């Protein structure tokens, strides 16, 4: 069976090589740089100065912790709201009503839209002189742009949250639709015949049914929104700043020390995401063992 | 000429503690219709796949007309296989499927069309050339698969469980077709099956395989009348086994002494297990038999169409007897009857 | 099941749908307007000025075929960006499929030691954020001479693309019956003809989905292109980003429309192939 083995190794090598050198190599090198190892300027020592500076130094501590808080807040809220919105939409749209197909299409429309465009779209709709503001002016609610709340490029990340909800709701929606359509109806009818009302059916039949898929989808969305750069770059402000934007700006700083700090920050971001994923796996394994 | 010889074939897979094919040797003459028979997982399909070239044996050889097949690439061996689920190429219609082998040879299109037409007539499906496989019934798909395999006049035809997917009445039709075509084209044919009835109906000779080892290679009749061991006998529906020891005069068994035909003495000597087919046991309410008769109680009667099966308890032993239902005997459950074991129908084995 | 759908639910969904398409509507109005200021809900002037400024459409009086060609051949930024995005997208799509095919076949059909580990490695670029690897990689690329080069950008685009392509194609092979190939071989087809006539048609639908993905992921890349391209390689997302920061909404909207055009096309095509929880959906969610 030697020939088979060789075939397997040869087939797997090219993609593994690419991912190994570019992806893992990049991470490794970034990690080394974050520890102060920069052969370019003949610095070969290993220390945690960059990490310390990023998290605890007078210069950056406030920036970092407020940024971390913003990151967590944005990711949690946008993931949760996107899921809730999609769930509501999926539960309604799976039943027949006028323009159901159209609504189905709209709810899944944003799936292949690039995040950049979604972010720009948020500006067009939600800025103080945006579509929504103009609408409210036309019907007399407000009289000038400054009366419209600051929803994009704001300190609380509302614009960023909105952008992520826009896009990820489509993701959740498609997943939920397929789960509900393949499994939901029979169980619901059964529960109904056993006397369950709408809320009970939702709580005891539908929710447990969609939970596994919803949960894994949420992890994906959370991890992604936590570490992504594009949307906060367009819709964020300078303080507080989301961590990926911060990391990137540090990195572009001509001061090479700042570069290490940028790497350290990106490593911190990666570690947090890793922890999340590990927790997720641990939770799902525990669940499987329980069953 | 396409004599197929299998010589000391050996194949094992990683993770299996016993070899899949263990030292199998067979000699199949041109034009023969042979069955590889055995329970699922006994290695018969693995042997087929080594003949086509999907697997390479660990050791041993396979020769066609005395030339080893092993170094030859699959597509050049002249060995075609028809799989159990026919595997008609879904993106081609029937004509394209059937003509595939000729297209591979580079034969001109007109000639291919003509040969395809002839082939489809041979399998009695003249008008379906434009249809796609999913529009065909199971029986039709199999005929097309057969046509596709035979169009290039291969030296060896291999069939994997050819009748197992078919309903009973289709089975007869297909059996007729396979035998007719095979004889007409005189192509050496090997088919694999786990159904002994199928093997007995189709094959000239049957290679019985248990656990990767060849038990025997014989005609169907021999498996009924002179099985090689208890397991082989059971596989063919033999159910009456008596522990026995033979001496010069008689055979001592658990139900009593039996006379045997002295002509068979050599065969029966040194064997400890006596067997007789249910169809060969005679029963009667009165003892009309001159020898080898025993009395017992009928414990069950099962009507199964052309035959009726009686279970007769003699002492601690139960014998199965199968009699034609037509000559109905007035025998009911719990009756006392006499059974006769004709001395010519006795056969001895070692387990 | 009785259709107990409260009217309010339906109206809420309508509202939700309306809100969801608002940005698109805003894009289109912006792109075809001139001076669409607050508080106008509908622009006073419709015009193609944004497209002219972008140099996608020639000025009044020059809008013949020659006019278009002249304009585009003068290589304005948007054409540069468009060409780059398309070229990079096509190249990485083709390369990724060729690389992924044998690996996917092996992963989909065979079982072997470390298979789970290998799948995990293949999928890992989708778990960690791109910023984790691209910063370190950039330094290496600079020393290897890939920084600011077209091929450097292509290389780095492969990283987010490979997992999706490998996963999608592995799924295809998992449902594939290799006996068909053996059948063709016994009928006289050699390995190449078998691949071309039997394997390829069977995996083609999956390959198309994988290719569309790969293209879309590459098309949407901003951070990777910006960093590795070092400002020398201009692609559409970079143009969108810089225009968005400039504050001219009509221009931004016009570029955005060009930018999302393939996404819409692909949405149409994959709605025929994609089911709810395939890796396809997950891929789109990351774009």
Give me the secondary-structure category of chain C: mainly alpha
Instruction: Report the mean per-residue pLDDT of chain C as an integer.
Output: 84
What strand line-up does the widest sheet of chain B have? 6-7-8-3-9-10
Write the CATH fold name of the largest domain in chain C.
MetI-like fold
Helix content percent band of chain B:
25-40%
Annotated CATH architecture of the largest domain in chain C: Orthogonal Bundle
Number of distinct beta strands of chain C:
0
Q: Helix coverage percent of residues of chain C?
A: over 70%
The dominant shape of chain B is: elongated
Please trace the helix and strand order of chain B, writing H or E for each element.
EEEHEEEHHHEHEHEEHHEEEHEEEEEEE
CATH class of the largest domain in chain C: Mainly Alpha
Please give a structural write-up.
The complex is a heterotrimer of chains A (291), B (351) and C (287). Chain A has 291 residues and is mostly helical. In chain A, 76% of the residues lie in helices and 0% in strands. Chain A has one domain (57-290): MetI-like (MetI-like fold, Orthogonal Bundle), CATH 1.10.3720.10. Chain A has helices spanning 2-34, 49-56, 61-93, 100-109, 115-126, 131-138, 158-193, 198-227, 230-235, 243-252, 256-290. In chain A, α2 (49-56) packs across α3, α7 runs antiparallel to α8 (198-227) and α8 packs antiparallel against α11. Chain B has helices at residues 44-52, 94-105, 109-122, 138-150, 168-185, 196-202, 220-225, 230-235, 265-268, and strands at residues 4-11, 21-28, 33-37, 59-64, 67-68, 79-82, 156-160, 188-193, 205-210, 213-218, 241-246, 250-253, 256-259, 273-275, 282-284, 293-304, 307-314, 317-324, 336-340, 347-349. Chain B has a six-stranded mixed β-sheet, sandwiched between helices. The mean pLDDT of chain B is 87. With 287 residues, chain C is mainly alpha-helical. In chain C, 72% of the residues lie in helices and 0% in strands. Chain C starts with 6 loop residues before the first helix and ends with a helix. The chains are: A mainly alpha (291), B alpha+beta (351), C mainly alpha (287). Chains A and C meet through α1, α3, α4, α5 and α6 of A and α1, α4, α5, α6 and α7 of C.
């Amino acid at each position: 069976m030697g020939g088979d083995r060789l075939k397997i190794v040869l087939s797997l090598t090219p993609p593994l090589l690419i991912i190994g050198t570019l992806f893992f190599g990049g991470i490794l090198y970034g990690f080394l740089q974050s520890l102060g190892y920069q052969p370019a300027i003949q610095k070969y020592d290993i220390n945690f100065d960059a990490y310390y500076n990023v998290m605890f130094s007078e210069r950056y501590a406030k920036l970092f912790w407020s940024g971390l808080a913003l990151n967590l807040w944005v990711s949690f809220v946008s993931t949760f709201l996107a899921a809730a919105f999609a769930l509501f939409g999926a539960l309604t749209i799976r039943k027949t009503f006028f323009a159901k197909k159209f609504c189905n299409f709209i709810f899944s429309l944003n799936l292949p839209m690039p995040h950049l465009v979604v972010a720009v779209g948020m500006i067009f709709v939600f800025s103080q002189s945006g579509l929504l503001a103009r609408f409210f002016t036309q019907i007399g609610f407000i009289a000038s742009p400054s009366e419209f709340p600051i929803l994009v490029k704001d300190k609380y990340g509302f614009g960023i949250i909105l952008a992520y909800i826009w896009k990820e709701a489509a993701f959740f929606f498609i997943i939920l639709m397929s789960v509900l359509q393949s499994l939901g109806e029979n169980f619901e009818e059964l529960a109904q015949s056993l006397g369950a009302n709408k809320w009970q059916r939702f709580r005891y039949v539908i929710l447990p049914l969609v939970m596994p898929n919803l949960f894994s989808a949420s992890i994906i969305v959370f991890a992604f929104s936590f570490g992504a750069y594009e949307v906060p770059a367009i819709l964020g402000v300078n303080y507080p700043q989301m961590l990926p934007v911060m990391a990137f700006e540090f990195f572009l700083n001509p001061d090479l020390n700042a570069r290490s700090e940028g790497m350290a920050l990106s490593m911190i971001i990666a570690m947090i995401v890793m922890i999340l994923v590990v927790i997720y796996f641990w939770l799902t394994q525990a669940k499987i063992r329980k069953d | 000429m396409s004599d197929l010889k299998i010589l000391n074939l050996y194949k094992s897979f990683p993770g299996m503690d016993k070899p899949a094919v263990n030292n199998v040797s067979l000699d199949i003459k041109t034009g023969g219709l042979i069955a590889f028979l055995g329970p699922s997982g006994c290695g018969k399909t693995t042997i087929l796949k080594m003949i086509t070239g999907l697997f390479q044996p660990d050791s041993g050889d396979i020769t066609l007309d005395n030339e080893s097949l092993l170094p030859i690439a699959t597509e050049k061996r002249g060995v075609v296989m028809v799989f159990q689920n026919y595997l008609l190429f879904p993106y081609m219609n029937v004509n394209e499927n059937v003509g595939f082998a000729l297209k591979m040879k580079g034969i001109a299109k007109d000639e291919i069309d003509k040969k395809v037409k002839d082939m489809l007539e041979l399998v009695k499906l003249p008008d379906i050339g434009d249809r796609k496989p999913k529009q065909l019934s199971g029986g039709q798909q199999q005929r097309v698969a057969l046509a596709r395999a035979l169009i290039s006049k291969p030296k060896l035809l291999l069939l994997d469980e050819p009748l197992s997917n078919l309903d009973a009445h289709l089975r007869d039709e297909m059996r007729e077709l396979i035998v007719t075509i095979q004889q007409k084209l005189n192509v050496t044919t090997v088919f694999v099956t786990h159904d002994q009835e199928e093997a007995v109906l189709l094959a000239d000779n049957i290679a019985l395989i248990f656990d990767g080892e060849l038990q025997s290679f014989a005609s169907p009749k021999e498996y009924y009348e002179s099985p090689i061991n208890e397991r082989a006998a059971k596989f063919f529906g033999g159910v009456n086994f008596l522990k026995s020891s033979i001496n010069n005069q008689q055979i001592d068994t658990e139900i009593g002494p039996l006379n045997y035909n002295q002509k068979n003495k050599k065969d029966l000597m040194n064997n400890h297990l006596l067997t007789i087919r249910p169809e060969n046991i005679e029963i009667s309410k009165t003892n009309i038999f001159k020898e080898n008769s025993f009395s017992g109680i009928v414990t069950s009667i099962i009507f199964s169409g052309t035959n009726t099966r009686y279970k007769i308890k003699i002492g601690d032993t139960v014998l199965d007897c199968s009699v034609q239902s037509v000559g109905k005997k007035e025998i009911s459950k719990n009756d006392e009857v006499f059974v006769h074991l004709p001395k010519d129908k006795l056969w001895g084995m070692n387990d | 099941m009785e259709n107990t759908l409260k009217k309010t639910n339906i109206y809420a969904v309508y509202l939700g749908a309306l809100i969801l398409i608002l940005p698109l509507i805003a894009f289109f109005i912006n792109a075809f307007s001139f001076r669409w200021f607050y508080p106008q809900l509908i622009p006073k002037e419709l015009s193609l000025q944004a497209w002219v400024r972008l140099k996608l459409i020639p000025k009044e009086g020059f809008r013949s075929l020659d006019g278009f060609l002249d304009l585009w051949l003068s290589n304005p930024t948007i054409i540069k960006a468009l060409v780059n995005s398309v070229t990079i997208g096509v190249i990485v799509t083709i390369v990724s499929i060729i690389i992924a095919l044998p690996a996917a076949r092996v992963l989909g059909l065979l079982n072997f030691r470390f298979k789970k580990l290998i799948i995990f490695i293949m999928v890992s670029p989708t778990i960690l954020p791109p910023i984790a690897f691209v910063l370190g990689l950039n330094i290496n690329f600079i020393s290897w001479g890939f920084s600011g080069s077209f091929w450097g950008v292509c290389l780095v685009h492969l990283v987010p693309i490979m997992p999706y392509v490998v996963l999608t194609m592995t799924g295809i092979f998992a449902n594939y019956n290799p006996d068909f190939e053996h059948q063709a071989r016994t009928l006289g087809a050699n390995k190449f003809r078998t691949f071309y006539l039997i394997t390829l048609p069977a995996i083609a639908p999956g390959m198309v989905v994988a290719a569309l993905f790969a293209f879309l992921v590459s098309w949407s890349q901003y951070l990777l292109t910006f960093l590795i391209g070092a400002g020398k390689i201009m692609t559409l997302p970079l143009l969108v980003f810089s225009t968005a920061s400039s504050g001219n909404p009509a221009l931004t909207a016009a570029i955005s429309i060009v930018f999302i055009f393939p996404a819409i096309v692909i949405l149409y095509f994959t709605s025929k192939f994609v089911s709810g929880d395939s890796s396809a959906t997950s891929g789109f969610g990351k774009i």
